[in-house]
Amino acid sequence: MEVKRRKLRSENDGIYKADQTSRPKKSHPSRRYFVVVALLGILFLGYIAIACDLKPIRLGSKAIDTLAFSFNLQKPFYVVVIDAGSTGSRVFAFSFHESILGGNLVLDDEHFLEIKPGLSAYADKSKDGAKSLTVLLDKVKNVIPRSEWQHTPLSMRATAGLRLLPSHKAQDILQECRKLFEDSNFQTSKNSISIMEGTDEGIFSWFTVNFLLERFNSHNSGNTVAALDLGGGSTQVTFSPDATQEKSLDGHIYSVNIFNHNMSIYTHSYLGMGLMAARKEILTHGMNLNNVHPKGTIEVRSECINPIVSTEWSYGGLNYLVRGPVNETHKLVKTQNFAGGEADRPIVNFSECLKIIEKYVGGIKNKPIGLKDHEIYAFSYYFDRATEVGLVDPFCGGVIEVNAFLKQATEACDYPNTDQPFICLDLTFIHVLLRNGLGLQPNTKLYLYKKINGHELSWALGAAFNIIQNGL
């Protein structure tokens, strides 16, 4: 087995240096002298406490670092990462500084903006695809000082959306984006833009979750959590297995160095198991799309769509007119009026829809053995669909069991909903993916969040640390 080694930011390594020619704002000499002397005294006490391994100093060190930062004794620097996903493009502008104690990297802030559709929607209009990113770059330029643009790395990584396009179309889009980046005034290189491997996507997402949860503080891999990222084109599963699990997961184990500590990580990117890619395959079950004209509209009739639904949907450069099956399914339900009668309701034939989805998810051969034994954080479309049906709070997130998706799926399939025409299909797919594809139990807990401590859960933060470590 070939083991890939990647090194994420170490507290003891050199870090990206901000421009040394820029100077902090001037303040009164006597006041600044007093502050510096006071800080030196506090730092000396902090050093003694750290040397003696006094745990209470952890909170104090944060306070000291914050105080030093507020007096401009540390200068922030920036990294910009664009996530070119299958359903949208997202920009993350991160600001960091080097801690005055220990020299480790501190994340100060991030600015986030998303636009739709994703670059894959511009399969035949590569210039328009690149042009769509200008609004993201304008956002970044509004939050990063102009003097720092030339020192700020700008990177874009495309994910499953472009992986699923024909190679020449994907490369045309990337080439137009390179031209845009070259004129941006940010720091770029020939490696600034690329299609990211699913392996990197998984590891970077896992790093982001565990970094924000402060699970790396103990340098114990058993303290980390698993990360499930459900994107539009693929889904990533990443966790740190124990020795027994590692033997069963041969072929997908990677060695990474996290803050100067080596960890074995399992990660697998299941291409085609993203929510939108799966939706397309489920909707077109049994259809031959090889000779479809890209400018035409493809009519599909699906067992996973309510009979009353007729809606347009676009994915991967193709347009679909989606309707329910020819042979409709109905059920009698009691009405809520005083007469107490029954009404005929059109519904999705759940058992037939389930068979189609189970057959599609059955294509997963390499299951993540041992995943169910870990604390699991799930985000992206897992979180989005859960909030849409009230399983968790859209602002605070929450914890549910896997079988909650099944309960909501059966209820959604029994109710005609033209506002959410795909909700029955999506929820059923998520449940089957978690149970049959990833081997989780009905009572396995899922921690569903969009943000932790105000920061987005995505692979972008992990990618930013990697850029600081290795450059563009």
Would you kindly provide a written description of the structure presented here, covering whatever features stand out?
With 472 residues, the chain is α/β, with parallel strands linked by helices. It has helices spanning 29-51, 57-70, 126-131, 134-143, 160-163, 167-182, 198-212, 243-248, 275-283, 350-361, 381-388, 403-413, 423-437, 460-470; strands at 5-7, 77-84, 89-98, 105-115, 154-158, 193-195, 226-230, 234-239, 253-258, 261-271, 297-301, 310-315, 318-323, 329-334, 342-347, 376-380, 398-401, 445-448, 451-452, 455-456. It has an 8-stranded mixed sheet with strand order 1-9-10-8-7-16-18-17, sandwiched between helices. Strands 4-3-2-5-6 form a 5-stranded mixed sheet, with helices on both faces. The two termini are 28 Å apart.
Layout of secondary structure:
Blueprint (H helix, E strand, L loop, with lengths): L4 E3 L21 H23 L5 H14 L6 E8 L4 E10 L6 E11 L10 H6 L2 H10 L10 E5 L1 H4 L3 H16 L10 E3 L2 H15 L13 E5 L3 E6 L3 H6 L4 E6 L2 E11 L3 H9 L13 E5 L8 E6 L2 E6 L5 E6 L7 E6 L2 H12 L14 E5 H8 L9 E4 L1 H11 L9 H15 L7 E4 L2 E2 L2 E2 L3 H11 L2
Parallel strand pairs: 1-9, 2-5, 5-6, 7-16, 11-13, 16-18
Antiparallel strand pairs: 2-3, 3-4, 7-8, 8-10, 9-10, 12-13, 14-15, 17-18, 19-20
